[in-house]
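Retro notes (design track)

What went well: tokenization of the new backbones is finally stable.
What didn't: we kept losing track of which sequence belonged to which structure.
Fix going forward: every design gets posted as structure first, then sequence, in one message. First example under the new rule, 506 residues:
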């Protein structure tokens, strides 16, 4: 894949986002076709980017004066996750979003969010990372409140307020970094830190980044916005928010800054481990007590994102200690593999919740039951996703959790391994609850006429359900692991060596 194609990851959805509102209400079919075509094209480009490393200089201006886009193993993995989930969510939207007016505006905001996420992943300097982060965030604020009901608007406002606070933290961090290094390019910031060390201003900037990106990732205790935003948003947007947005704007940005710009330290590594464990445990406990189907899944997302941050934090700690690199590599592999797995199975769970809500008119599990025969495709897809998120073999979620357990045991952190297993059992309990109260038991009188909405909604769910099973091959098949997961792990393992590699490629 030529580096000249990198701008298309941003330009294509951005241009389409501005074209779609022109279609209006009379040409919804054409607008829907164009939006799906864009997401499929981005998926093809993401597949072509696998295993590639390149730098694109915008306007042919060399860094650090110019702006560059960077494609490496980590950004390639995130681009693939974004394109897979957005393609499925957009396909699901074809039928689901007919319930809403102004569908072309929804499609426009959807692609604007995709363009922002792709920009965050590819940006080679921290200011443009912030700009793209804001593009994705603003679109997501509007999409959460798209239904315009009291619940949706309240959740959107709360999300916007806390998201703006996170953005302010990030922007102040950017200003401090520029004031202390004289550059905004990540590679040159890293090079300056290597030569001059980490002073008080840069250390404070790192703290601001951890707080800002931690809020975007909805890590405990920065999670207050997520349990309201996810249930209120349309199901395809819930899938996007939980599946990839919190990972792109939060986890990816945090990992890139910590590993490749500032460099790992024992203190930061343990902080990430603590945030990961706190999110895992608190999210699981809060999810078990929920009766709102989408709110249960929202709290579950907080718990699952903890696994990802735990793996990355454990890898950072081991690298900073100078421990066996293979141990650190395994921890990071587990975290990144779980990121990819969670993107698929949690997106699928939110799509199934949308199918259930659309068919029954409620999200309250106490008002459901006996839907297995009425919603067979939805039930099958939900069962596969539930088994994967609970870590039941041979589904993909089992492999990523197993890797994290092995990494913790190798690092002699047996208590961390025990927590991972315990939270997995809690996750199993919460999704057995979903199966019991949604699909099993007696069918209530009010739901006797329930029917499944098939078509594109069913195709999207089946597509992601198949991926839940097949993604285990990323670990089992050496060539897939070597081309998709290993390059992403190596980007974080190289740490500040990122600067030399990017400068040499420019």
């Amino acid at each position: 894949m030529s580096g000249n194609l990198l701008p298309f990851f941003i330009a294509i959805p951005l241009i389409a986002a501005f074209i779609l509102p022109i279609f209006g209400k009379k040409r919804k079919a054409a607008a829907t076709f164009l939006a799906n075509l864009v997401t499929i094209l981005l998926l093809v480009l993401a597949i072509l980017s696998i295993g590639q490393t390149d730098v694109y200089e915008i306007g042919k201006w060399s860094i650090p004066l110019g702006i560059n886009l960077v494609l490496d193993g980590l950004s390639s993995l995130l681009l693939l996750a974004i394109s897979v989930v957005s393609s499925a969510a957009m396909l699901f939207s074809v039928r689901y979003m007919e319930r809403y007016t102004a569908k072309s505006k929804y499609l426009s905001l959807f692609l604007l969010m995709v363009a922002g996420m792709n920009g965050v992943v590819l940006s080679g300097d921290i200011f443009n990372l912030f700009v793209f982060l804001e593009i994705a965030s603003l679109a997501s604020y509007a999409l959460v409140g798209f239904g315009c009901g009291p619940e949706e608007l309240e959740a959107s406002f709360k999300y916007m307020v806390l998201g703006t606070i996170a953005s302010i933290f990030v922007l102040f961090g950017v200003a401090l970094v520029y004031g202390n290094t004289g550059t905004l390019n990540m590679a040159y910031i890293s090079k300056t830190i290597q030569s001059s060390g980490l002073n008080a201003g840069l250390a404070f900037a790192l703290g601001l980044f951890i707080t800002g990106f931690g809020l975007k990732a909805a890590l405990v205790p920065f999670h207050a916005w997520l349990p309201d935003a996810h249930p209120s948003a349309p199901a395809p947007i819930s899938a996007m928010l939980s599946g990839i947005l919190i990972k792109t704007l939060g986890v990816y940005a945090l990992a890139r800054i910590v590993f490749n710009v500032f460099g790992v330290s024992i203190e930061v590594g343990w902080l990430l481990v603590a945030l990961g464990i706190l999110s895992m445990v608190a999210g699981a406990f809060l999810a078990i007590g929920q009766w709102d189907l989408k709110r249960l899944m929202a709290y579950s997302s907080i718990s699952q994102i903890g696994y990802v941050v735990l793996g990355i934090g454990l890898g950072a700690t081991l690298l900073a200690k100078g421990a066996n690199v293979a141990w650190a590599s395994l921890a990071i592999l587990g975290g990144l593999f779980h990121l990819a797995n969670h993107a698929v199975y949690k997106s699928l769970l939110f799509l199934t919740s949308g199918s259930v809500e659309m068919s029954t008119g409620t999200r309250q599990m106490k008002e459901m039951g006996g839907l297995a025969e009425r919603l067979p495709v939805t039930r099958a897809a939900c069962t596969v996703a539930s088994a994967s998120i609970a870590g039941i073999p041979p589904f993909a979620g089992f492999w990523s959790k197993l890797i994290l357990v092995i990494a913790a045991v190798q690092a002699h952190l047996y208590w961390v391994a025990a927590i991972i297993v315990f939270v997995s059992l809690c996750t199993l309990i919460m999704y057995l609850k979903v199966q019991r109260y949604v699909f099993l038991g007696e069918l209530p009188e009010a739901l006797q006429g329930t029917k499944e909405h098939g078509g594109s909604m069913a195709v999207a769910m089946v597509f992601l359900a198949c991926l839940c099973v097949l993604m285990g091959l990323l670990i089992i098949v050496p060539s897939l692991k070597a081309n998709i997961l290993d390059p992403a792990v190596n980007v974080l393992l190289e740490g500040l060596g990122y600067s030399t590699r990017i400068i040499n490629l420019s």
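Added context from the reviewer: The two ends are 16 Å apart (CA to CA).
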